[in-house]
């Protein structure tokens, strides 16, 4: 897993505005690695991340628990994420 977590997230509580859930903010620093994966516990499930780098391109597969949204940060840019599994291709 890259540096702690590469996600920040918030949770929508029924009948309330967005409230922060326990969050981690980190940014992937792969060094010389071309592929990393990991799992981080969250109060509503697990956050799973797989990162594959080819040159300057990054393929990220991220799975967030139900009701959780987040952001993937790569090279100073933010990529929004939703609950469920998604693939992000960054060129």
UniProtKB/TrEMBL annotation:
Region (Disordered): 1-39
Gene3D superfamilies reported in the protein's UniProt record: Maltose phosphorylase, domain 3
Biased composition (Polar residues): 7-20
Protein name: Uncharacterized protein
Species annotation: Luteitalea pratensis
């Amino acid at each position: 897993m890259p540096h702690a977590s590469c996600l920040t997230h918030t949770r929508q509580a029924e009948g309330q505005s967005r409230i922060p859930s326990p969050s981690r903010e980190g940014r992937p620093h792969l060094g010389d690695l071309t592929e990393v994966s990991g799992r981080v516990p969250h109060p509503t499930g697990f956050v799973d991340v797989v990162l594959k780098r080819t040159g300057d391109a990054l393929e990220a597969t991220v799975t967030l628990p139900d009701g959780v949204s987040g952001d993937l940060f790569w090279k100073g840019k933010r990529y929004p994420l939703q609950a469920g599994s998604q693939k992000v291709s960054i060129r």
